[in-house]
């Protein structure tokens, strides 16, 4: 058996962590775009859109991410193509992220005072103009902390893609464990790397939140 | 696409599914009761307890909230035996869920405690209650009532997250689905069925927790 | 011809009939004070005239055009009739000047430079030109309300609806807002205002409407309504016996 130094273990894990970071970025950005779409359906004027968005959110938030990954993997497989794990992983994570971001952002839009709608109405603005110039700029400000906070869930969510065979940090952890028989050390390192990725995000979310609250109190 | 859906296997494998559902329910029942209890204890430690204890709890909470549940599970199941702590799959799964929910509910309950008006603590003190007595008799119940919706959502999230315990061969609903699809070669249909079962469980669990909220906190004022 | 013609207007919220057939005709340049107990439907009436609530029955004509609940008609109406709210409702993310410029630019498509000239003019009119770059949270309540007035005026409406615009203000700030309104009235602006400032209503208004349980209970010149109330409800409201 090959000898692994602690540094070898760490180096292998860090190399794999690049894929965790990349997949997180793709999921977060893609999920943000799809989430915007779902958001506008959810708060829009079209009843069918609202119903669809509610169903979408309920479905993706009411079922395990792992099941969504399996369904993406085997569902795409039905089209006869050999599905690479990264594709299924990216697709499922994007759709899953979108459902949460849409719901978070809806809360932010609804947090804008009713008087803002009325005042802009009384000035003759239409729905789109109100959204663009009055509501969204205010919603955006309160949306930043919870959005940053949710990015932590996305990073952690990518760990599940190891189960459908995408080689990222968690999968690398299992592979290195199988080669070294040092589960305690390896999974300890894996956890610490995740922590190093997530904790700064959690912390900045908290700090942003606090700043926002202070700004609000000054009103 | 010429794929023909086939659900004819459902009858044959129903007992396997039911057993998996049973394990998933058992996991979340234990996880919720013990996890929330742990969370309350930790919230007390962080909000009102001695500083050193609050510090330890803070580290625990941050570690858990910033690492994936899957890795926590692997660490407990594969990692702890090298310290001489050998655990069965179900025990490891149970522990992982309690530890995980404990950290999240700690933060949620703490927010509820911090939203308590100062006057409540002062009233308790003025009635000669000790700080802990004030916490237990005066502060805790309204705090829990305040954050019950958030706590309920977290329990549902942990239930859905429990799908990964199949990865250490704990025989939950996902494990059952994995088993079935390896026999019937109908992976997509199998996961659709198990996904819908999870959806139903999530909806039922949410209703159940709402009911629990109503019985635990019958019409008391929150503020 | 009257500028605002309100005929048999009815409004229900569920089973609660809040307006039970309102008739008021407002001539150009008139200043109407609407008084009455809380819950008598004063706000709802103003909100109906501005199209913030749809009416269930009757009709509202503004400058001869009927109020219809589609976006195009609503926009046309709101270009003619401005509204000032009790809670100011300034846009908190925009400076005072930007607050006044925004709707000109996005609704009327006024070029930015022109909108800015107008904004300065209107802020000057309410005595706040020096606060052009201040944000709402840097202004006192009275100043915020004056910016809100400037914002409505910048759309060059032919009438203004004011719903208890001094009720959220500290007492010492009430007069600076009322002074602005008084000036507008003197310049010939048509005003309908819900108010609890009885002295102001008596001094400035051409007519006073007393609303009671969703109806116009009494209406007339201030001298008559305040000096010689006919119904027991108005007497009780005014505290005369
Ligand atoms: N959006 C609404 N939904 C239901 N009821 C309302 C609504 N707005 C006002 N009301 C009811 O209409 C009645 C009149 O309210 P309002 O016009 O605000 O009275 P005022 O301004 O004279 O105090 C009240 O009984 C109030 O509860
Ligand atoms: Mg009112």
Automatic annotation (TrEMBL), chain A:
Keyword Chloroplast: no
Claim: Cell membrane is one of the keywords in the record: yes
Gene3D superfamilies per record: MetI-like
Lineage top rank: taxon: Bacteria
Chain ranges of the ABC transmembrane type-1 domain: 17-205
Membrane-spanning segments: 20-44, 65-96, 181-201
Gene Ontology CC terms: ATP-binding cassette (ABC) transporter complex
Compartments (UniProt record): Cell inner membrane; Cell membrane
Mode of membrane association: Multi-pass membrane protein
Database matches in Pfam families: BPD_transp_1 (PF00528)
UniProt entry keywords in alphabetical sequence: Cell membrane, Membrane, Transmembrane, Transmembrane helix, Transport
Matches recorded under InterPro entries: AA_ABC_transptr_permease_3TM, ArtM/GltK/GlnP/TcyL/YhdX-like, MetI-like, MetI-like_sf
Annotated GO MF terms: transmembrane transporter activity
Coarse class of the protein's main subcellular location: membrane
Name assigned to this protein: Amino acid ABC transporter permease
Species of provenance: Methylobrevis albus
Automatic annotation (TrEMBL), chain B:
Transmembrane segments: 20-45, 57-80, 147-170, 191-209
One GO location term (cellular component): ATP-binding cassette (ABC) transporter complex
Pfam families assigned: BPD_transp_1
InterPro entries associated with the record: AA_ABC_transptr_permease_3TM, ArtM/GltK/GlnP/TcyL/YhdX-like, MetI-like, MetI-like_sf
Domain ABC transmembrane type-1: 21-209
Membrane topology: Multi-pass membrane protein
Keywords: Cell membrane, Membrane, Transmembrane, Transmembrane helix, Transport
Domain of life per record: Bacteria
Compartment(s) where it occurs, according to its Swiss-Prot or TrEMBL record: Cell inner membrane; Cell membrane
Family membership: Belongs to the binding-protein-dependent transport system permease family. HisMQ subfamily.
PANTHER family assigned: ABC TRANSPORTER PERMEASE PROTEIN, MEMBRANE COMPONENT OF AMINO ACID ABC TRANSPORTER
Name listed for the protein in its UniProt record: Amino acid ABC transporter permease
Species for this entry: Methylobrevis albus
From TrEMBL, chain C:
Native species: Methylobrevis albus
Keyword set, alphabetical order: Amino-acid transport, ATP-binding, Cell membrane, Membrane, Nucleotide-binding, Transport
Keyword Membrane on entry: yes
Domain ABC transporter: 4-238
The protein's name in its UniProt record: Amino acid ABC transporter ATP-binding protein
Keyword hit for Cell membrane: yes
One Gene Ontology MF term: ATP hydrolysis activity
Annotated membrane topology: Peripheral membrane protein
InterPro entries: AAA+_ATPase, ABC_ATPase_HisP-typ, ABC_transporter-like_ATP-bd, ABC_transporter-like_CS, MetN_ABC_transporter-like, P-loop_NTPase
SUPFAM superfamilies, sorted: P-loop containing nucleoside triphosphate hydrolases
Family to which the UniProt record says this protein belongs: Belongs to the ABC transporter superfamily.
Cell compartment(s), UniProt: Cell membrane
Gene3D superfamilies: P-loop containing nucleotide triphosphate hydrolases
One annotated Gene Ontology cellular component of this protein: plasma membrane
């Amino acid at each position: 058996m090959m000898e692994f130094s602690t540094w070898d273990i760490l180096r292998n894990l860090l190399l794999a962590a690049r894929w965790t970071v990349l997949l997180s970025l793709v999921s977060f950005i893609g999920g943000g775009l799809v989430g915007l779409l779902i958001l506008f359906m959810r708060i829009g004027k079209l009843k069918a859109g609202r119903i669809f968005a509610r169903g979408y959110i309920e479905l993706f938030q009411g079922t395990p991410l792992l099941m969504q990954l399996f369904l993406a993997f085997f569902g795409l497989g039905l089209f006869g193509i050999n599905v690479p794990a990264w594709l299924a992983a990216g697709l499922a994570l994007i759709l899953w992220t979108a459902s949460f971001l849409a719901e978070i952002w809806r809360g932010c839009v609804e947090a804008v005072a009713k008087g803002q709608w009325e005042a802009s109405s009384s000035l003759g603005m239409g729905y789109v103009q109100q959204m663009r110039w009055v509501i969204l700029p205010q919603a955006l400000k309160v949306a930043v902390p919870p959005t940053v906070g949710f990015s932590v869930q996305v990073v952690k969510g990518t760990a599940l893609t190891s189960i459908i065979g995408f080689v990222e940090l968690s999968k690398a952890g299992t592979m290195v464990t199988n080669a070294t028989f040092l589960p305690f050390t390896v999974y300890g390192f894996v956890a610490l790397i995740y922590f190093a990725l997530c904790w700064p995000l959690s912390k900045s979310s908290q700090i942003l939140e606090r700043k926002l609250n202070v700004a609000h109190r000054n009103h | 696409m010429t794929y023909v859906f086939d659900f004819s296997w459902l009858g044959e494998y129903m007992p396997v599914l039911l057993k998996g559902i049973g394990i998933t329910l058992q996991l979340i029942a234990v996880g919720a009761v013990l996890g929330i209890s742990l969370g309350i204890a930790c919230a007390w430690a962080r909000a009102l307890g001695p500083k050193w204890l609050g510090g330890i709890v803070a580290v625990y909470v941050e570690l858990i909230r910033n690492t994936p549940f899957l890795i926590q599970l692997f660490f407990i199941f594969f990692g702890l035996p090298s310290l001489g702590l050998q655990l069965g799959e179900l025990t490891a799964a149970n522990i992982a869920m309690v530890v995980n929910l404990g950290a999240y509910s700690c933060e949620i309950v703490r927010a509820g405690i911090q939203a308590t008006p100062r006057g409540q603590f002062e009233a308790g003190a003025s009635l000669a209650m000790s700080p802990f007595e004030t916490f237990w008799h005066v502060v805790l119940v309204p705090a829990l009532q305040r954050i019950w919706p958030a706590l309920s959502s977290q329990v549902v999230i942990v239930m859905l997250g429990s799908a990964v315990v199949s990865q250490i061969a704990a025989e939950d609903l996902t494990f059952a689905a994995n088993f079935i699809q390896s026999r019937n070669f109908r992976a997509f249909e199998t996961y659709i069925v198990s996904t819908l079962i999870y959806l139903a469980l999530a909806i039922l669990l949410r209703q159940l927790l709402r009911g629990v909220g109503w019985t635990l906190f019958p019409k008391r004022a929150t503020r | 011809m009257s500028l605002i013609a309100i005929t048999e207007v009815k409004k229900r919220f569920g089973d609660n009939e809040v307006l039970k057939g309102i008739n008021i005709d407002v001539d150009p340049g008139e200043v109407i004070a609407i008084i009455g107990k809380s819950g008598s439907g004063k706000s709802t009436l103003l909100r109906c005239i501005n199209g913030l609530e749809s009416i269930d029955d009757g009709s509202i004509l503004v400058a001869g055009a009927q109020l219809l609940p589609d976006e195009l008609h609503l926009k046309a109406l709101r270009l003619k009739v401005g509204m000032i709210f009790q809670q100011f409702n300034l846009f908190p993310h925009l400076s005072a000047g930007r607050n006044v410029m925004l709707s000109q630019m996005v609704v009327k498509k006024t070029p930015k430079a022109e909108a800015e000239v107008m904004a300065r003019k209107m802020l000057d009119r309410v005595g706040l030109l020096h606060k052009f770059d201040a944000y709402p949270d840097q202004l006192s309540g009275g100043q915020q309300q004056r910016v809100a007035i400037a914002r409505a005026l910048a759309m060059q409406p032919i009438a203004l609806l004011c719903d208890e615009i001094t009720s959220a203000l500290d007492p010492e700030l009430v007069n600076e807002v009322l002074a602005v309104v008084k000036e507008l009235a003197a310049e010939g602006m048509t005003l309908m205002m819900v108010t609890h400032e009885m002295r102001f209503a008596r001094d400035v208004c051409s007519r006073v409407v007393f609303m009671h349980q969703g109806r116009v209970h009494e209406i007339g010149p201030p001298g008559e309504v305040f000096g010689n109330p006919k119904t027991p409800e108005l007497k009780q409201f005014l505290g005369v016996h």
